[in-house]
What we know:
α3 crosses α4. The chain has one domain (6-171): Glutamine Phosphoribosylpyrophosphate, subunit 1, domain 1. The chain is α+β, with helices and mostly antiparallel strands. It has a five-stranded antiparallel beta sheet with strand order 5-6-7-8-9, covered by helices on one side. The chain is built from four helices and eleven strands, in the order ββββββααββββααβ. The protein is 33% helix and 30% strand.
Amino acid sequence: MYHATTILTVRRGAELAVGGDGQVTLQNTIAKADAVKVRKLEEGGLDDAGVLVGFAGAAADAFALLERFEQKLKDSPANIKKASIELAKLWRTDRMLRRLESLLVVADKSTSLLVSGSGDVIEPSDGIIGIGSGGDYATAAARALHLHTDMDPKTIVEHAMKIAGEICIYTNTNITVLTL
């Protein structure tokens, strides 16, 4: 499990939101409260609407993986599934990358994926992905809100992340949410 972050992706129809909390934890100390762990990549998404990315785990590892994902996306424009699979294969087989401790969530207008170093590329059936130490709390809250309300994805992410931030000691309520 990766501590010190929560990333949540919610999809409803053609709308998508990806959010991340701002807390960075070093051992048992909060080192930063306003980190940004979600990004929008302008190129490569379906219809060039962009790709949203969130990461949990070691920041340097996540940025190294993000760079490689961007390269794979340039090799397979508008196909985040193929780019994610290629990244997962590289991540699993490369001696240096294999040691990187991070998880990525990547999403465009049509697809949301969880990508891990163990070779996993998972597309959830309900369009909701939560990663990091508060990911399970955020996922549970988002699924309940998604099922029982008509809220848009951004509002669901905001509420679910707030709930996770009130439960998980490695997550705060300083939330950044990006939408497509």
